[in-house]
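I would love for you to help me understand the pair of lines that follows before we discuss the fold together.
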Amino acid sequence: MLTKKSKTVIFLLKEFNKKNIPYCIARNYENFPNFKSDLDIFYINKLNLIKKIFINTAKKFHWDYLIYDENKSKNFLDQNKIEIFYFYDRKKENFLQIDFFRSMLVFGVPYFKFKNENIEKIKKKFNILPRIISKTYHVFQIASLLPINTNNKKKIIKYKTRFLSLKIKNTYKKNVFFENFLLIKIQKTLKLNKLKFFNALIFIYKLQIFLKYYLKNPLKIYEFFFRIYEYYLLFFKQKSGFKISIINKKHIIKNAEETLNRFKKLKIIDNWNYKSKINLLNRFKFLERRNVLLNIDDKTSKTKNFKKIFINILIKQNKLLYKKKIL
């Protein structure tokens, strides 16, 4: 039996096909329409039409909230924007996150820009990113996840398996110097788990892509400085994470901890921690993602239901596109 999330995804993609919206699913489509985490989609434009489709979908499938997170798109260059949408049911704690990208970045420059011809069709039901692109890009994702720990081990193994399934001649190329040599060495060091050497090779490869882009497009050097500004927005002005204050009472703290652990398991949040356990500098990095800092404060008046506090802050920090009417 299909879940609410699965029905929502199927309906959305049918609407995209019907309305000729260019798109492709980036990854994790093997178990379509079931997605364990978020759904990543590449698109070109028609964001206003996508929002209308999303609102109608939220109504059709009786989601409690549809929230639009523009923290990774507002004041960004078009090619760097990530438009994020959350479908959320408060009682059943169903949660579906859909991210829209225009390009893949390496060192802040486009590694791949989506065009309507850059697609593979799966059983005429939905479009995916060509597998040679997504599988090759996994090497950069692996490097960003290192070092290996209990939180990322499964993901690294999955990405590693996919990349190693490619033959070098079938990898996605950027036509930089010694690219075949680099990819052969990257594959070999990954197979042998020589991760320090692997990281060094990835850095060289990324640097080559970066330099080629600006040598070929010298007038676009402003994008480099604008990307620095975007990082400033991400870490200081437009954080996806937030702080929640609760009073110092055992039953309230216990309820908050249980709720946040459940939310983490359900992917409603990425992580959480106590404000007192993270120093000021690391808080900026922590709150760049959809993480929660729990603050114990005897002066706070927030003693109501913790889930209500959470959803109210999530809505306040973002844009509420739809809320189901309570009869």
Remarks:
- The domain at 1-129 is CATH 3.10.450 (Nuclear Transport Factor 2; Chain: A,).
